[in-house]
Write a structure and sequence with these properties.
The protein is α+β, with helices and mostly antiparallel strands and 889 residues long. It contains 32 helices and 29 strands. The chain starts with a helix and ends with a helix. One of its GO terms (biological process) is methylation.
Length: 889
């Protein structure tokens, strides 16, 4: 029987050929079926009449259609099965000699070339060898792909695309996953982040670890089988299997309580042993109880499908590694109360540059005592001028030229930092010669949880004279900071040779003052620290904390960052750089002062790169030159001043704008022109009087207009309205196809555009161009429920609901007013998505005439009156802002 093997293996059970699931591919595990027979049952291929290759070891069949590959990998495109690779299986030990390897490779080449695919694989059960069929046929010699991993769907995808080393940005995947997790669980953003990172690591490690380390039954792809088939085979859903078997396997591979092998850490902190108390995964938002976990299986599979569609997680875009955490944590107001302002990468990198880590000697220590997710510790690994290749793996051990150490009290952040480091070490994870034990050692030697006292964290064990460079963004907490001093007072005994009550007795306000004391004592003589501090700490008048810092350190730089540098606070912040003094009589150097107006990205929530506007990067370059004795860049910049150390005493402010004149600050855009007190009073009185009169007139007008007869209409009335959603489009794609058509999304301000794109490109991707006026409702995010009228040619994203008005007797401006009231009455909150169906449920009241017809003239009068009212509100707001920010001469 020609297809007996295919029938026995169930590949024709449905009447049409269907292989086993292999990620996004299908696999035929055969060996006795010819290529001729495969083509006959639906595999789309045109076998050649002969193979032009000098087979020296393998006796090739005369006819390519007679080849019998052991495995065939196919991609299903609609109803077509297209082969993409073949493989030959050899018994263990059959690749011992070079001749055996060459014979197997030639056999694999023949089968692949016969089926017309470019990837041939041969395996002896311990190692997979990948043959480049096209190159081999062209060169008449075996050519191999540079791939060392065991075969899995990600490896096959990488080989087909040739993108193993091409960095991918998974931000869209993170955004999609966040939405799915949040809507299913309503968990805190931090829990959603932990869940995403856990599943990200499941996919990442499944794509890169050897099979001997992570068997197939514990991999991402094992979960992708049809849900009903999976349940029948295993007696449980995929999510239950994941929780019961795969999660414990990952926690076994990356165990908690891993002991740090670098004893220098113990010595630095003054402790006998350092353990990492977490694995690399923790906090699966779906796992509230074993009884309810199966109810989340559909959502779990939806997330897995999103990961599958995204493709291999092999090389990860460095930008993503830090910005991932902002994607999730910017949604949580709670983070701000905790003082956890995660540092933007566009600030981290210039600070690392200024630290000149590449000049450090072997064995030097770089420390972040408030490491969070590890940006300052991990970013130096990513670029040549810092610490590339600092982490090496030799004979099952990890080695570091420079010790990079991150401390934190938050165990979730500690776990996320370890996960982040694994992603940074993607090349090592892909390398079969690097063991999981060596990776574990690198993680535990890099990130240390100091949580014996949950309040004090790393402050409880201050290093003494042992650190070469500190890079940190310590937490900002002033209200409630007294609890830290109470905790210090309760500590019994010495910590690293000091009494904490005396050590931290500097009288400073806020946790950042305690960290400054920690930092000044930790540095070696000549060691430097680059610290992000709030403006309020620098311009406070209390002298004691400043005196304590100056006793041990010199101020070497004070750099003002622009407002809104940090995503979740508008507070102005500074980079303060200090250097540990060698002796009490060392002369103090001049202080490098600078004002950064830009950091290379927009300072709104979008954070769009603006590489041509990056004062901070230029300032970092000038600081490096300044540190080397070259003041040319500093002297030629309007943004930089070199100031005597006498201006930075304990009694001085340490912010820097005082070193620029008013005219210079106005020119730099830092300050508006000052007004006299008399002018301020006159302008304020005029504004108040004008607004008061306008408010009275608006009140009278609205009272007269709101007594007309009204009738309720539902937006589901298809005679009057057509409610639809916009179209999904990425900002990156818009920027790549610039044009004249504005694209609007869900922003708080109606004027903000997502971008502008060409009409030709928008039409090519199926995006509707709005040629007629429409009313829109923001359907997602912090501006959910905002209603705007769009009366220009534009395009709308899928975060916005569109209402087409089908009756000429409805005024769009009035409809928008009524919709705002309907949305407000509905109580739609931030992050509660307004779907099309929910908008159709809204009801609006419209004025009607005595005969029951719609009264458009009355609509227009009310709309005009409300618009004037809104303008008055805006004027009132602007007057208040001007009053608060005005500088009085």
């Amino acid at each position: 029987m020609a297809n007996e093997e295919l029938i026995q293996r169930g590949y024709l059970a449905s009447g049409a050929l269907k292989g086993d699931t292999f990620g996004e591919y299908e696999l035929l595990n055969i060996g006795q079926t010819t290529i001729k027979e495969l083509v006959a049952v639906g595999v789309e291929a045109t076998p050649p009449k002969s193979i032009d290759f000098p087979f020296a070891n393998y006796k090739a069949p005369k006819k390519p259609i007679s080849a019998k590959p052991d495995r065939v990998y196919l991609r299903r495109i609609l109803d077509h099965l297209v082969p993409v690779a073949t493989a030959e299986n050899k018994a263990p030990g059959k690749h011992k000699t070079e001749k055996e390897k060459l014979t197997s490779a030639e056999q694999a080449l023949f089968a692949a070339a016969s089926l017309g695919v470019n990837i041939a694989i041969t395996s002896d059960g311990t190692k997979d060898i990948y043959i480049d069929v096209k190159a081999s046929l062209e060169n008449k010699a075996l050519e191999y792909f540079d791939e060392q991993r065991d075969l899995n769907p990600a490896v096959l995808s990488n080989l087909l695309a040739g993108d193993t080393g091409v960095a991918k940005d998974p931000k869209p995947l993170a955004e999609t996953t966040w939405q799915i997790i949040w809507h299913a669980t309503k968990a805190e953003p931090k829990e959603c982040l932990l869940t995403f990172v856990e599943l990200f690591l499941l996919k990442f490690l499944s794509d890169n670890l050897p099979t001997a380390t992570l068997p197939d039954a514990y991999r991402f792809y094992f979960l992708l089988e049809d849900p009903a088939t999976f349940l029948s085979k295993h007696g449980m859903t995929a999510i239950e299997y994941y929780v019961k078997f795969i999660r414990p396997k990952f926690q076994e591979l990356f165990p908690s309580d891993q002991v740090a092998q670098d004893t220098a850490i113990n010595s630095m902190l003054g402790v006998s042993e350092v353990k990492s108390p977490t694995s690399i995964i923790n906090g699966f938002a779906f796992h509230k109880s074993d009884e309810t976990i199966s109810g989340h299986n559909r959502t779990f599979l939806e997330i897995l499908e999103a990961f599958k569609k995204f493709g291999p997680l092999t090389a990860i875009d460095p930008e993503f590694k830090l910005r991932l955490y902002e994607t999730f944590l910017r949604r949580s107001a709670r983070q701000q109360k905790l003082g956890q302002f995660f540092t933007p990468r566009n600030v981290v990198r210039p600070m690392i540059r200024m630290a000149q880590l590449g000049k450090l000697s072997d064995g030097a220590v770089v420390l972040d005592p408030a490491a969070g997710v590890g940006g300052f510790v991990l970013e130096p690994l990513l670029f040549d001028e810092a610490l590339p290749n600092n982490v090496e793996f030799v004979a099952g051990k990890s080695k570091r030229r420079v010790r990079t150490i991150g401390l934190d009290v938050d165990l979730n952040l500690h776990m996320l930092a370890k996960a982040n480091m694994l992603i940074h070490l993607a090349e090592a994870v892909r390398n079969p010669a690097v063991t999981v034990g060596a990776l574990n050692q690198a993680l535990s030697d890099t990130f240390v949880a100091i949580n014996r006292n949950d309040t004090l964290g790393s402050l409880e064990y201050p290093p003494r004279d042992t650190v070469d460079v500190i890079l940190t963004n310590p937490p900002y907490v002033t209200q409630g900071s007294a609890i830290y001093k109470k905790e210090i007072a309760e500590v019994k005994g010495m910590r690293n040779g000091v009494d904490l009550r005396d050590y931290y007795d500097n009288g400073g306000l806020g946790v950042e003052a305690l960290f400054l004391r920690y930092i000044s004592g930790a540095l070696k003589p000549g060691g430097r620290a680059f610290i992000i501090v709030p403006l309020g700490m620098l311009n406070r008048t209390e002298p004691r904390p400043k005196s304590a810092l100056l006793r041990e350190c010199n101020i070497i730089a004070s750099i003002q960052l622009p407002r809104n540098t940090f995503f979740n606070t508008a507070q102005k912040t500074y980079i303060l750089a200090v250097e540990r003094r060698h002796t009490d009589v060392d002369p103090r150097p001049p202080v490098f002062c600078a004002i950064a107006r830009s950091i290379g990205e927009t300072l709104d929530w979008q954070r769009i790169p603006t590489p041509d506007e990056n004062d901070l990067d230029d300032i970092a370059s000038a600081f490096i030159k300044f540190s080397e004795g070259d003041t040319s860049l500093a002297d030629s910049s309007k943004l930089i001043r070199t100031v005597s150390a006498d201006e930075f005493t304990a009694n001085d402010r340490w912010d820097v704008t005082r070193f620029w004149s008013d005219d210079e600050l106005v020119e730099l855009g830092e300050r508006e022109n000052a007004v006299s007190r008399v002018d301020f009073v006159n302008e304020a009185r005029e504004g108040i009087s004008e607004i008061s009169g306008e408010l009275k007139a608006a009140q009278d007008e609205l009272d007269k207009l709101t007594h007309a007869p009204m009738q309720d209409f539902e937006l589901s009335d298809t005679k009057l309205f057509n409610v639809r959603s916009g179209t999904r489009v990425r900002g990156q794609d818009i920027r790549q196809h610039p044009g004249d058509i504005p694209i609007y999304s869900c922003f708080r301000d109606a004027r903000i555009e997502k971008g502008r794109a060409s009409r030709k490109w928008l039409e090519s991707v199926g995006m509707t161009i709005e040629e007629k006026p429409i009313v829109t409702v923001n359907a997602n995010g912090a501006s959910v429920g905002k209603v705007y009228v769009r009366d220009q040619v534009c395009a709308i994203t899928d975060d916005v609901i569109i209402i087409d008005v089908l009756d000429d007797l409805i005024d769009l401006d009035f409809l928008a007013i009524q919709l705002r009231s309907a949305v407000a009455a509905g109580g739609f909150l931030c992050e509660a998505k307004l779907f099309v169906a929910r908008v159709k449920e809204l009801t609006v009241s419209l004025p009607v005439k005595e005969d029951g017809t719609l009264d458009i003239e009355h609509q227009r009068k009310i709309a005009a009156a409300v618009k004037r009212f809104d303008n008055i509100r805006l004027k009132l707001s602007e007057l208040g802002k001007w009053s608060g920010e005005a500088r009085i001469a």
